[in-house]
Write a structure and sequence with these properties.
271 residues; 2 domains; binds D-glutamic acid; 4-stranded parallel β-sheet; Rossmann fold; alpha/beta; 6-stranded parallel β-sheet
Length: 271
């Protein structure tokens, strides 16, 4: 048993999709979350900048005594995973590998759609992992740079004409190709789940990179005998690099409980 907390980070709110799943799968775990809300989005930035930001995020999280760090961000997982693993002697779990595994297992017709940030699509990381598992797969990938800013501004609900129009345009080539599986390769996108599901239509499996990342954490910690007592009630503490107010209201809605008083601001440039 290991009672130390799990560190989770993302460029903003998206990593909460992993936190939500983690707290449901592993209710006994304590979580320290960092959302780099002052510098979101990461997905339109260069590789060097993403690596620099990710190093700072990890350095901040490592100021706590953690048992593992979850990169709850498709952009950082696909761009900086190897660098972070090499530089940090602590288990680091990303979202690409577990999402690729889930997609390869879910697709019946071998046509898979992938949506992610520009940086994620540029790396080809999901494509390589999915092809390694299922070389027969036809993969249609589409960068969706407008989704993260929309989600960060609370524009993710069905009936929102702006988000629905953007989703229709981004998903058109994936629908046309007849994909039966859609990988939400950015952890912000599961917040758009209802919009994306209704645009794709019935019978299309949506793979949430946040949820798959959380399942991989459970597997990894269980295999290492490093889970906390499942009978206790874990606690989440949140840190952000910009104002607390906006994060509190959206995170409270998304997590289904009030996080007021649980969020602090951190100057991430010091790390
Ligand atoms: N949640 C991040 C991801 O999974 C969003 C990246 C961004 O900030 O653009 O890619």
């Amino acid at each position: 048993m290991d009672s130390r907390p799990i560190g989770v980070f993302d460029s903003g709110l998206g990593g909460l999709t992993a936190v939500r799943e983690l707290t449901s799968l592993l209710p006994g775990e304590d979580i320290i979350y960092f959302g780099d809300t002052g510098r979101v989005p990461y997905g339109s930035r260069s590789r060097d900048t993403i690596i620099q930001y990710a190093r700072q995020d990890v350095a901040f999280l490592r100021s706590f005594d953690l048992k593992a760090i979850v990169i709850a961000c498709g952009t950082v997982s696909s761009t900086a995973m190897e660098v972070l693993e090499r530089e940090n002697p602590i288990p680091i779990i990303g979202v690409v590998e577990p999402s690729a595994r889930a997609a390869a297992a879910a697709s019946r017709n071998g046509v898979i759609g992938l949506i992610g940030t520009q940086a994620t699509i540029r790396t080809g990381a999901y494509l390589r992992r999915i092809r390694a598992l299922r070389p027969d797969v036809k993969l249609i990938d589409v960068a969706c740079p407008l989704f993260v800013p929309l989600v960060e501004n609370g524009r993710f609900r069905p009936g929102d004409i702006v988000v629905e129009t953007v989703a229709r345009e981004y998903l058109a080539p994936i629908k046309e190709a007849g994909a039966d599986t859609l990988v939400l390769g950015c952890t912000h996108y599961p917040l758009l789940q209802d919009v994306l599901a209704s645009e794709m239509g019935p019978g299309v499996a949506l793979i949430s990179s946040g949820a798959e990342g959380a399942r991989a954490v459970r597997e990894r910690l269980a295999a290492a005998g490093a889970l906390n007592d499942p009978g206790r009630r874990g606690h989440c503490r949140f840190y952000v690099s910009d104002s607390i107010g906006g994060f509190v209201s959206l995170a409270s809605v998304f997590l289904g409980h009030d996080v007021t008083g649980e969020v602090s601001r951190v100057d991430i440039t010091r790390y």
